[in-house]
Design a protein that fits this description.
Layout (H helix, E strand, L loop, with lengths): L4 E7 L3 E8 L6 E4 L3 H14 L2 E8 L6 H19 L8 E8 L2 E8 L5 E5 L6 E2 L2 E2 L2 H13 L2 E8 L3 H20 L17
Parallel strand pairs: 3-4, 7-10
Antiparallel strand pairs: 1-2, 2-4, 5-6, 6-10, 8-9
Amino acid sequence: MKERKGKYKRKTLETEVEVKINLDGKGISNLQTEIYFLNHMLTLFARHGIFDLEIKAKGDLEVDYHHTIEDIGICLGEAIKKALQDKKGIKRYGFTILPMDESLVQVALDLSGRGQLIYGVQFKQERVGSFEVGLVEEFFKALSYHAGMTLHINLLYGKNSHHIIEAIFKAFSRALDEATREDNRLDNIPSTKGIID
């Protein structure tokens, strides 16, 4: 089987981010973002998707978390795209409904080459600790666009913001794992166009 690893670096006047991902990993993560709630969510993403994930990120956190979280999303999306190469032999689509205590989240995605996010989530609280819940949407918007995936995230119901966000990251990881799995019945690109772009 071909090696499906991707890495991407981004340096701006606001942030410096490096991401490495192995789609055929063991769920191991090494995360250095200084945003500890995001570290927790990305640890869950790696573990439940069975991806190996390494992230080093520095940013202008004294301003707020926005620039750093958005740039981590950009870099993770680009790393996923690089790991998938031409997408030959993958299932392409992934779908998960995942419970987290009182919350239930639905995630569906298509590795279509066309990046967009459809986000049907509303929170009752504005923050989990120091983390602004609105940044979850910004993270997935950047990730989906740069990975070239159509991503639907919907909260079916839930109250606790921590539980909702945790369910989103776990459901996304499982849907991505399903979509990136290689199907041994296929030896071509999963599109009648012959390319996914």
